[in-house]
Specification:
Largest sheet: 5 strands, parallel
Shape: globular
Radius of gyration: 22 Å
Structural class: alpha/beta
Strand order of the largest sheet: 3-2-1-7-22
Distance between the termini: 27 Å
Strand content: 15-25%
Length: 391
């Protein structure tokens, strides 16, 4: 059961976003006796997990993916399926008796002295003692501004809309983007009956086995995350040469930059869940990056023109924080991402926290759990100081 401090803040802490990160912070705050209200714009928690593609499983192990105060059930297996993640999040809300308000979207956050004003759906004006923004690393689908895109009349969708290969049976499909999502969708299509599958690659990714000799890649990520990039780059190169085939003949040469160097630039390695064998077997063809669209055709960087039946753009997401927070000084950096995250607040905005805006090689859910505890400790200490000043 949660403990109750001698004097609680006059207003609750508002957590914006009912995904794993937001729920973890709310549970950690409740454990410390601080009231937290989770505002979720959809009609249920874990909204993004409910709409991911069917075959998705966690790329991190069950044991290292649980949130504070509740382990993921052993019956879910080592690599937890998408539907089981949703079940776990629902159980998490129930176990911690979290206060969730669904169907409420926050449009703007303003500072008012020591408090925060949230402008939300239906003209709501909510006052919070602190705010935790947990709207998600993958918030708004992003499409590059390809020349000719507006006039393209072919079938084009973002990877967020992909569920399974059934609608693509017998079709010629181009998947754009070789991150984890694009790689897995390409493999899924190849295994699920698509007539032809091509994967457009701009920058060759680092590919790692999910496990090597029974050892999960996530554990390696945890062990090396604080080592110098040059050391991790060299280790990654040795492991790749020992345990991964050379796919240069198939259009996927070994990356020029090291694994850690690329990760610090924002590119996480691709965990292999079928892509390597699909490429080696010719079931997934690697082609050059997409440069534009013209007369119903897709233009590639090497000058080739192709006319697939469908294009699936696995081209990433934007954080989309500017409408919410762009008017506040020192909160977002030049790329629209939080200037700080985790237990730190922006200097100009004490009491404003960001949860889940990194994508570490040590596993996102694991880091969400760690940061949730840190954020909750910081908020609880701040509440205690305010209570002491008020006596």
């Amino acid at each position: 059961m949660a403990t109750t401090p001698q004097q609680s803040p006059a207003h609750p802490v508002y957590v914006i976003g009912g995904g794993p990160g937001g729920l973890a912070v709310a549970a950690s705050l409740r454990e410390r006796g601080v009231r937290a209200v989770v505002l979720e714009k959809s009609d249920a928690v874990g909204a993004s997990w409910r709409t991911h593609y069917d075959r998705l499983r966690l790329h991190t192990t069950r044991r290292l993916s649980g949130l504070p105060g509740l382990r993921i059930p052993r019956s879910f297996g080592r690599w937890v399926a998408r539907a089981d993640v949703v079940r776990y999040l629902e159980k998490y809300v129930e176990k911690h008796e979290l206060e969730i308000v669904t169907g409420v979207e926050v449009f703007r956050i303003d500072r008012a002295g020591d408090e925060w004003i949230l402008h939300a759906t239906g003209g709501r004006r909510l006052t919070g003692s602190a705010v935790v923004v947990a709207t998600g690393y993958n918030h708004t689908p992003r499409l590059p501004e390809w020349p000719g895109l507006d006039a393209y009349e072919g079938e084009l969708s973002h990877a967020r809309e992909y569920r399974n290969p059934k609608p693509y049976a017998g079709k010629d499909v181009l998947v754009v983007g070789a991150g984890n999502t694009g790689a897995e969708i390409a493999a899924d299509l190849a295994e699920g009956g698509a007539g032809r599958v091509r994967l457009a690659v701009r920058t060759v990714p680092h590919i790692v086995r999910r496990t090597t000799l029974g050892w999960p890649a996530q554990r390696s990520g945890i062990l090396v995350r604080r080592l110098p990039a040059a050391v991790v780059d060299r280790m990654g190169e040795v492991i790749a040469r020992c345990f991964l085939p050379d796919l240069s003949a198939h259009g996927l040469p070994r990356p020029e930059k090291g694994l850690a160097t690329r990760q610090r630039e924002g590119a996480v390695p691709v965990q292999d869940v079928g892509l390597i064998e699909a490429v080696r077997a010719g079931k997934v063809e690697v082609v050059a990056a997409v440069e534009g669209f013209e007369h119903g055709e897709v233009l590639l960087a090497d000058g080739a023109r192709i006319a697939p039946d469908a294009v699936i753009a696995a081209t990433g997401y934007r954080r989309a924080l500017e409408p919410l927070l762009g008017h506040l000084d020192g909160v977002l950096d030049g790329s629209g991402r939080p200037a700080v995250h985790g237990a730190r607040c922006p200097r100009e905005a004490p009491g404003l926290y960001f949860q889940g805006f990194t994508n570490p090689i040590s596993g996102m859910l694991r880091e969400l759990a760690i940061d949730a505890e840190k954020i909750a400790r910081g908020i609880a200490r701040g509440a205690a100081r305010k209570a002491a000043r008020g006596r």
